[in-house]
Amino acid sequence: MNIAIAFLALNLIILIHEFGHFIVAKLFGIKVDEFSLFVGPKIFSFKKGETTYSLRLIPILAYVKLEGEEEASDSERSFGRKPVWKRAAVISAGPIMNLLLAIVLLTAVFTISGYSSTGIKTVEVNSPASSSELLPGDKLIEYAGHKIFTPEDYLQFLYVSKGVPAQILVDRNGKQITTEIVPDIYPAEQRYLFGFTVESATGEASNLIAEISKGMPAEEAGLKAGDRIIRLNDTQVVSIEGINSYMKDFEGGEVRLALIRDGVEITINITPRKISISESYYTGIDFDMVKGNIFNAAGHSFVYAASVVRSVVNSLVWLIKGDVGLKDMMGPVGMVSTIGAVVEQSRTSFATLLTNLFSITAMFSIALGATNLIPFPALDGNKLLLLGIEAIRKKPIPPEKEAVISMIGFILLIILAIFTFYNDIARIILGR
User: Fold this and answer.
1) CATH 2.30.42.10 fits 116-191+273-290, yes or no
2) Catalytic residues, which ones?
3) Of 121, 188, 177, which Cα lies nearest the Cα of 151?
4) How many angstroms separate the CA atoms of 35 and 136, rounded?
């Protein structure tokens, strides 16, 4: 069931993308020869008007076949005979529809559950943030010269900069203040882990379980999202810092883990597993949650979407510079696995399932739309680039040259697809 829901979510993203191309092509009078759900051999089809609607065998992707897009056509209604601006609108419509889908889903999520703002809720005592004289109520504006739209931006720039000291700009009661923060760096190491994540990196929700990792001791011992960890053996813990501090010196064996579940204290015996973990960074900041109405939720949806679009562009730059590795790339298999995991970990209530599913689907929808606008051969962005060149030259690119560009792009995309497929499988099966 989880995989089925994940496939539906991923294919919804792709279907909405292709529907954008389809509806704008129809609007401009371009003949649409076929609208296909999935790819591969045709299972069945029907024709309505001039368009064939088909279902194909391989249950992923979708496509729209426009008259005169890939082949020569003398029809006045062919794609190639339309003005550059109309063709650009048709091509842009796919990514734009992905962004609009994400805005709708995120507005629902933020209306129901609220969202994290860039306002600082708490500053941990004796943390890097307290040493930098940051205060609750400060609003984060920039980190290391980068504009911060969401807390996710802050964490992203913190990790990509590998925790080096950074200038941080905040708004304090209408006045902008600049200070330097020196993150604590926890080196890569092997550590005993339970296999859960917590609601917050700091503060009172940092010992509250948010998600359980599949196949890890926490799942095997029956821990659940919403459990609050209060004691490890005889050591009381009130935050993730306390849990990490205890586990740092842990040498293996069984742990008597005490937790609060539905107001009742429960003790569970659990044997943590030794896992290799990456280098991590800590600053001691916890951000405010905002609960509002549909209007400010919609406003924040646009801000969040802009943040994700920027992260796609940044990720490409970081990949070229070597700040992130190819192993971090994710393909369709990884997306389905991630969405499936979200579904599996959201069984506490239907509302939780829906908000988590909407959230991850929206993120992937934005990422797909933004990635498609990159001027890489065979992507929408490359088609827009060629149309831009055509507008400047006042004549189209020779078809044979465009065909060569498309073929090169297709080959590169196949290679990339194979690589991401290997990455996804290695990540799922081998835990890499």
Assistant:
1) yes
2) 18
3) 121
4) 53
299-315 mean pLDDT: 89
Tell me the angle at which helices 350-372 and 294-321 cross, rounded to the nearest 10 degrees: 50
Architecture (CATH level 2) of domain 195-271: Roll (2.30)
Q: What is the pTM of this model?
A: 0.78
pLDDT, tens digit, 9 for 90 and up, residues 130-150: 999 999 999 999 999 999 999
Q: Do 116-191+273-290 and 195-271 have matching folds?
A: yes
Per domain, the residue ranges of the chain are 1-114+291-432, 116-191+273-290, 195-271
Instruction: Enumerate the β-bridge partners of residue 222.
Output: none
Interval 77-96: pLDDT, tens: 999 889 999 999 999 999 99
Average pLDDT, integer, range 66-86: 88
